[in-house]
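Exam review. A common question shows you a sequence with its structure tokens and asks you to describe the fold in words. Practice with the pair below. Do the first one on your own.
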Amino acid sequence: DIESMKRQYNYRRRVIVDGFRSMGLSCFEPKGAFYVMVCIKELFGKSYNGKQINCSMDFAQILLENTMTAVVPGGPFGADNYIRLSYATSMENIKKGLSRIIEFAEGVK
């Protein structure tokens, strides 16, 4: 059971990391936790639906308001250029969240 769980979490981690990298966003590849930290600093100073993104809190709030997708701002962790996502959830949730974030990022101008 443990080996199966490890394979599943590794697969989920790969889907998230590869998904963000395909968007051109860098992220740390976690080695032991269930969280991915994604760098969003290249989106700072840009806006979505007239709301400007200046920090991770702005990104998280605007994303939630417009896509019903929650991420954790990195600011409270001392990493304001990042958002934090967990992959200790279902593949369905991961794919749905990635899809929404990709669509959101494409609308950031």
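Now try the second one, then compare your answer with the model answer below.
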Amino acid sequence: MEYFIKSGNPEKQRVACVIVGIFDRRSLSEAAATIDTASEGAIGSVMRRGDMDGKAGSTLMLHNVPGTFADRVMLVGLGKERNFDEAAYRKAHTAAAKALRQTGAIDAVSYLTHLPVKSRDFQWNVTQAVLATQEVYYRFDECRGAKAREKETPAKLERYTFDVPRRSDLPSGERGLVEALAIDKGVTLAKNLSNLPGNLCTPTYLADEARKLATGSPIKTKILEKADMEKLGMGSLLSVAQGSSQPPKLIVMEYMKGPKTEKPIALVGKGLTFDAGGISIKPAAQMDEMKFDMCGGASVFGTMAAIAELKLPLNVVGIVAATENLINGEATKPGDIVTSMAGITIEVLNTDAEGRLILCDALTYAEQHYEPSFCIDMATLTGACVVALGNVATGLFSNNPALGRSLLAAGDQVGDRAWELPLWADYDENIKSEFADVANIATRGGREAGAIIGATFLHRFTKRMKWAHLDIAGTAWIGKKATGRPVPLLVQYLLNVAARRTESA
């Protein structure tokens, strides 16, 4: 499907479908009122009969509306006008996209992008419209058989246009479209990698995908093998890989399009391509979902692909620690003590708290090899974060208030929200070990503050960096499907960084 931006009158569109909004209590949006006038009250007549009352997310398709050139006019319920906000705006576009999929329309023009959203402009309107639509149209069929794929009915919509009120709004709309398509490219890549099963998406597969990402793009990729990690002293990461026959990989992707003297922003992702928990084995129920334990790494891939598409004038390094956490005769045992790349010894009291073990070495690598201006890691780290925040908000921790605020603002802006949790020194005692420098789980306090304890552990390895940690355990996948989060948040953050630097230049 192709997207376009234009400015024109709704009643004059020669397309298969024109989309307009109706507020609750049968209040017409401006575009709907225009069509109602042109059709001599056709929309009003439908509403008086009770077929459309404007409830949020409802849709009604009208055919051959008098006074218009379109084959169809879709009415989309917007909810109460006084309550119309960002969430309602996205819901309207989602509803429109779902209804369009059920039609034979090959092209459509949406006037929902005219709807005013407080503190947002038409660039934002278009970006959100495209992202909501792409979410509806996304399908993952790579693992289905050929016959099953043949039976899948393809979407008929080929051309989708979002209208803006004035010709002077076209540049903003076009910019919103460009940014949305880049974000969606990253989200789609992250989803596709995350949805693959563990027998296909192995650490080696991820390394190959990183090499492909570098082909014909400004990204340079290098892969550190097990022997390289041994030379660097990554005993913590390697301890997780011991139980698997799949070789671990440390995947490094460099995008250096900023000033040569400018330190890069480092993105570090947890790439556990399957996590059975090691000897501290997980319960069998829903263990299949542990293929999603590499969503943090997938989001690094997606973000790098998006910024390359946008050609942002930044220096960004993406690092993915990729391995499996399985069981064999060499697997790390509870109580084992390993030495990290930073020289900090770790008592592994629970082998299922492995994400922090691979991330700490990846974070040290980022610090020692790149001295980043900022470092952001993302990981499906703790079930405790799911308990705390559900699947609505990502857990955010940061040792730099400005960085934390910037990430929160970017998440609010793009609709990929996070919520900040404390990273206070009060929690440090909870990971004190009797035999090593630090334990990988809480040694006091039981199961309390699990997400904070995980972040506190990582902070031991990041105190010399401006750093943020995103716990995406509740947001990276829902049910059995990956969401692609936090790619939108990260890309929006980097867009904002690039914009600020351009303004100050």
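Model answer, second protein: The longest strand covers residues 265-275. The mean pLDDT is 96. Full marks require stating both points clearly.
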